[in-house]
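Lecture 7, part B: from sequences to assemblies.

Below are the input chains for today's worked example.
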Amino acid sequence: MAKKLGRPSAGQAQLTRERILAIAVRMVDEQGIAALSMHRLATELGVDPMAIYHHLPGKSAVLSGIVEQVFNELRPPAISADAGWQTEVRAYRDLVRAHPNLVLHLVTDMASGGPAILAVNERLYAALASAGLADRMVVQSANLLVDYLNGVALAEGLSRQYSGQYPDQHHAGEPQDLSQLLQRYPSDHFPILRRVLDALPTDTSPDDFERGLDIILAGIQQWSRLVHI
Amino acid sequence: MAKKLGRPSAGQAQLTRERILAIAVRMVDEQGIAALSMHRLATELGVDPMAIYHHLPGKSAVLSGIVEQVFNELRPPAISADAGWQTEVRAYRDLVRAHPNLVLHLVTDMASGGPAILAVNERLYAALASAGLADRMVVQSANLLVDYLNGVALAEGLSRQYSGQYPDQHHAGEPQDLSQLLQRYPSDHFPILRRVLDALPTDTSPDDFERGLDIILAGIQQWSRLVHI
DNA sequence: CAGATTAATCTACGATGTAGAATTTGTCAA
DNA sequence: TTGACAAATTCTACATCGTAGATTAATCTG
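Predicted structure of the full complex, as structure tokens:
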């Protein structure tokens, strides 16, 4: 039985922007960005590839629709104003963690001024300002935090996704850890790296991200003290 | 006159891994990653697409070859050991700045443990250790710096490349600036963002990156003082 | 000089993104 | 009721992409 041609009858399940994006997000989460093609997405929707183009103008629109969709998961948890900036920062990080296959697009959109960046920044600025920082310091701290956040998210997200953007053997089976990576090279290479890493207690630090935040926090406090006086 | 078939005669310019990668880097720098296809690369080389496969096993190998090539530009400037960690950090940033179209791949490789990360980390560790930091602090500071660096590089690189990875109208003509971006929305949205940004002197801070480094530096000093005592 | 090796070209294929025409259904004024 | 129009889908088609496999010619090795 071939598909019927023409406009669908009122009864049958209609194609919506929301439905398309929901399926697309699921596909990317489960199979990676590389698996998302218009043809495959259409198949998953039980529809012709070109049907999608009546709801979204092209593939890149699907991509940014996905990003928008995922960023919207972030909006609700702004429970109260003064939960503190660390809460805001952590919420964004958790979001990216939840969708490792999307890291690149999320971070890219964040960095290139997508609509979602405004909401995140608004809340971050609010939190920082209510912590008593001067306006100039608010801006500088926010920039620092967002950049750091994106860097961490990228590193974590990439190590989290099993098969990367290029699903060949190149990025597969990478150790993702400095000390493991070191073992591939002759032992007279990178001496300082070796010495420092070997000298450390075997338990890897519980959470590099939290330590990074601590250091940044200390820096912000120190600097705003300097600026104020 | 059709191309001759078979192995090329000794006289004529031969295809090399180096020549391929050099042209590829040039293409990406000038026209963006999206413009780099095996067919086009071959045309630029005056050669059949499949000829490339005798020197590089596939496109992803070309990509990582490009990244490797570009990272190698970084090696020489390690003039002396104690130029300080800020010099190391800035060198990496300048490298990425010089190849904005490659940001994503450079940062990705950096973040996912590519071969280049080792050299960069070695020198960074050396600089931090010679600044008198304890081993544990060296590792944490290095992680923080690398993550921040990648975040900044990504943000800057993306804003620097005119036509992005998706050369449609979506990412084209984006303001790339918070205050410009704000003007698109009704003026009762994002009040705090508006207030803080408007309150700032009109001259945008000379270099957010340098301020970020200052803040991080202050944090590192503060923290290493805490740990030491 | 006779293989064997090497490095290129030629041909071909499946996938991808999407333009444009054809087709059917719903809506709404006459 | 009818007839024109709009909307939503399928159908057909195409250029481009990455690359597998066969073919061909120049060079190297014995």
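Note for the exam: Residues 4-10, 37-39, 49-50, 53, 58-59 of chain B lie near DNA strand D (CB under 10 Å from a C1'). Keep this in mind when comparing with the next example.
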